[in-house]
Design a protein that fits this description.
The complex is a heterodimer of chains A (about 130) and B (about 130).
Chain A lengths: L2 H29 L7 H20 L11 H17 L3 H13 L2 H27 L2
Helix pairs in contact in A: 1-2, 1-3, 2-3, 2-5, 4-5
Chain B lengths: L2 H24 L9 H20 L5 H18 L2 H14 L2 H27 L8
Helix pairs in contact in B: 1-2, 1-3, 2-3, 2-5, 4-5
Classes of the chains: A mainly alpha (about 130), B mainly alpha (about 130).
Chain lengths: ~130, ~130
């Protein structure tokens, strides 16, 4: 795949990821209108980290996506494109700020810590699964 | 999913992904292994989103369109939590424990600080739309 084409496909995958994130947010808001915590962002970031972990694990030396070529392109499209567009750090940061203002510092710190631990745990599980492929 | 709002989210998401790709292509990885490109996009994106949400005109269709295009679309896709999470794990696997601990802490605390700074700065701007 040429560089320009790969770039275009990565951007399109990023657009799909952003749409999927927005869809999860709309669906959870409709299903749980009284929720106090930003669960959609936590869900998106955790599942996206698991998927990117899976890709990263498969790209480790000896894995099915290791080295240049198709594996590298797939990693760019699904990882840099989709997972990057799907997960979000900016919304997570703004929501921690908002939780601190509207609720308590403890709730905000708890949400921030839970996001970091859950995403890192999901990524580690994904890497382990991807490396075993 | 409504069509026009979806187009705004998709357009912003494609642009945010392109910008993140550009930063990753331009910013080198330091010898310490610190994921500098992800740090930069995440802190800058948190600042931008904080500023955007504080600068939006009063609630209405125009503010909603701007939020979907620039907030949900651009800032959402420009920044990435999955890369942060995976980079932390890969740093731990490589034995770069100090960076693996400092990088997420600085990112998360710095992200909230940047969002607050953006909101404070945008809150000082003169408002349009009669507010």
């Amino acid at each position: 795949m040429s560089g320009v084409l790969l770039f275009a496909v990565v951007c399109a995958a990023g657009a799909l990821g952003a749409l999927a994130r927005w869809g999860v947010d709309l669906a959870l808001r409709r299903r749980f209108p009284a929720a106090r915590l930003p669960w959609a962002t936590l869900l998106v970031n955790t599942t996206g980290s698991a998927l990117l972990g899976l890709l990263a694990g498969a790209a480790l030396p000896g894995g099915p996506l290791a080295g240049a070529g198709v594996g590298e392109a797939l990693h760019a499209v699904l990882g840099t494109g989709f997972c990057g567009g799907y997960t979000t750090f900016s919304t997570a940061s703004v929501e921690v700020l908002r939780l601190g203002r509207e609720h308590t510092t403890r709730t905000a710190a708890g949400y921030a810590a839970a996001t970091l631990l859950l995403t890192a745990g999901a990524a580690a599980a994904g890497i382990g699964a991807g490396a075993a492929l | 999913m409504p069509v026009r709002p979806a187009l705004l989210v998709a357009a912003g998401g494609a642009a945010g992904t392109a910008a993140r790709w550009g930063v990753a292509a331009l910013v080198p990885v330091p010898a310490s292994g610190w994921p500098l490109a992800t740090t930069l996009v995440n802190l800058a994106g948190a600042f931008l989103l904080g500023a955007l949400l504080a600068a939006l005109p009063r609630p209405g269709p125009a503010a909603e369109r701007a939020r979907l295009l620039l907030g949900t679309g651009f800032c959402g896709a420009f920044t990435t939590y999955s890369a942060l999470a995976v980079e932390v794990d890969l740093l731990l696997r490589e034995g770069a424990t100090a960076v693996a601990v400092l990088y997420p802490l600085l990112s998360v605390v710095g992200g909230v600080g940047c969002a607050a700074a953006g909101a404070a700065l945008a809150g000082r701007l003169p408002r349009r739309g009669g507010r």
